[in-house]
Design brief:
Blueprint: E1 9-14, H1 18-31, E2 37-42, H2 48-57, E3 63-69, H3 78-96, E4 100-105, H4 114-146
Parallel strand pairs: 1-2, 1-3, 3-4
Length: about 150
């Protein structure tokens, strides 16, 4: 009797702008049941690639979603951070063979107002759903390749 193991997924999220970023996890969990998801927190976006690499190296996950919200803080160019994060996440996926899905958003215009916070909280729910659907789709495709 063959026993198929239910795939596990990891969701790594930055705690900077946690009220917005956590909404991506809400959307992800609407598609993939919580009992199949392990959640990891990091301080900010820049720490995502290293943690995602370590999570991928564990060999426990079918896919990993990484979420962050990178905005212009005035001290450094947020494009630099966003590019480093997305490039790092892509490299982790290519180097480990574990699909890494980015829910890392960098708006051109963000103001810390209730209006913008509401818009981006809602947007992150959608992006979380998209990441979950992508993780499932990649899993189906990869299953065909080994069948």
């Amino acid at each position: 009797m063959t026993h198929t193991r239910t795939p596990r997924y990891a969701f790594v999220k930055a705690n900077w702008h946690a009220d917005i970023v956590a909404r991506a996890l809400d959307g992800f969990l609407e598609i993939i049941p919580g009992e199949a998801v392990d959640v990891f927190d990091v301080p900010g976006a820049f720490e995502l690639p290293l943690t995602v690499r370590d999570v991928a190296a564990s060999g426990r996950y079918a896919a990993i979603a990484a979420a962050a919200f990178v905005v212009d803080g005035g001290i450094y160019r947020h494009e630099f951070v966003a590019r480093a994060v997305v490039d790092g996440l892509m490299r982790v996926g290519l180097d480990t063979g574990v699909p890494v899905l980015s829910v890392s958003l960098t708006p051109h215009q963000y103001q810390d107002t209730e209006h913008h916070r509401r818009i981006f909280r809602e947007h992150f729910v959608d992006k979380g759903r998209e990441a979950a659907r992508a993780a499932l789709m990649i899993g189906k495709t990869r299953a065909l390749l080994v069948a």
